[in-house]
Specification:
With 346 residues, the chain is of the alpha/beta class. It is built from 14 helices and twelve strands. It has a six-stranded parallel beta sheet with strand order 2-1-3-4-5-11, with helices on one face.
């Protein structure tokens, strides 16, 4: 095992002061060429690697990016990160931060302004803001650079990256109609995200010949676990499926809602997709590996993260580059909505 040497170790071995050693290794301060070369040689022999925090502080250039996850109901950070969407997003954010020479720190919520400034972050990526998100107002006050993944329509000037939810929802509804659905139910949450608002607006304006569309809301605001959210979704799904006339398709607008609908359908003796078509707004491992695999919308999350990182690292004075981007979303058709023999489980 190679022990990590400290700056004090280097200074002691080189017989110089810690300040001289620091200046020799950072390129700052007045150090003669012979001493600088000597200190650098000793540092190499001791396998000295400066810490990122110390280096960024010395150079005056922060190199850590904060990833701010949303407050989803009363879920803990552990619960959030075990979801497919946020777990993958955190991994991709870490990878793309490294591409830009930065480290990533995950924040369950924003600190008070003074604490946030003391962290010395290069910038923040804020995930799934709500309408009128107070985090945006606070960041505007502190002037810490940030990019939203999702939109806050009350902060239209905030740099943001979001999926083309409206087009994807329309494609999904058209697909359900083509598969014979005439009584479609939307299972939405009470979380005020831009993607959910876009989906509801598109759902309300969608008019397929001979089709009706009804929205049901699952109140998740006080839930502490994903299991509790799933139980509430199942309860609302059962209520919807017991209505007369019974729905022939359900589209879930929250991670795991489609699985809850499948469970409710089976309790009523219904089969998917023969008796009921089931789909999900955002693709996930739960959707791909479900029984049956669930038709869902691929929002190309990695592309969103990469684009957000590029916006964060870009020149804030470059007014020629659009500060808000929309990433295309695509429909992944699987067995849960395929009554014909041909279907795709990819």
């Amino acid at each position: 095992m190679i022990e990590r040497a400290t700056l004090a170790d280097v200074a002691r071995a080189a017989a110089v002061s810690p300040t001289t050693a620091s200046h020799a290794l950072s390129g700052k301060g007045r150090v003669d060429a012979r001493t600088r070369a000597h200190v650098q040689k000793i540092a190499q022999e001791l396998n000295y690697v400066p810490s990122r925090a110390a280096r960024s502080l010395a150079l005056g250039r922060p190199d850590t990016i904060g990833l701010v996850l949303p407050r989803v109901a009363e879920l803990s950070l552990d619960e959030l990160l075990t979801t497919d969407a946020y777990g993958r997003l955190a991994v991709w954010a870490s990878q793309h931060a490294l591409v830009h020479g930065c480290a990533l720190t995950i924040l369950p919520d924003l600190k008070p302004p003074t604490e946030l400034l003391a962290m010395g972050l290069k910038g923040l990526i804020v995930v799934d803001p709500v309408e009128g998100d107070p985090r945006c107002r606070m960041l505007d006050q502190t002037q810490v650079p940030y990019v939203l993944i999702g939109r806050d329509d009350q902060h239209p000037d905030a740099p943001s990256v979001s999926p083309d939810t409206s087009s994807a929802i329309r494609a999904m509804l058209d697909h359900l109609h083509e598969q014979g659905a005439r009584r479609i139910v939307l299972l939405a949450s009470d979380v005020n995200w831009s993607a959910g608002r876009d989906a509801l607006e598109e759902f309300a304006s969608w008019h397929a010949t001979g089709s009706t569309a009804v929205a049901h809301t699952v109140e998740v605001g006080t839930c502490r676990t994903r299991e509790e959210i799933g139980a509430r979704a199942r309860s609302v799904a059962l209520e919807a499926l017991r209505s007369d006339p019974r729905p022939d398709a359900v589209l879930g607008l929250f991670d795991g809602f489609a699985g809850a609908v499948v469970t409710a359908a089976r309790e009523m003796g219904l089969t998917v997709p023969d008796d009921l078509l089931v789909a999900q707004d955002i693709d996930s491992g739960l959707a791909r590996l479900g029984d049956p695999p669930i038709t869902a919308i691929d929002i190309h999350q990695e592309e969103q993260v990469a684009t957000a990182m590029e916006l964060l690292m870009g020149d804030p004075d470059d007014h020629a580059t659009p500060r808000s981007r929309v990433v295309p979303a695509t429909l992944s058709v699987r067995r849960s909505t395929s009554r014909a023999t041909a279907h795709t489980d990819g």
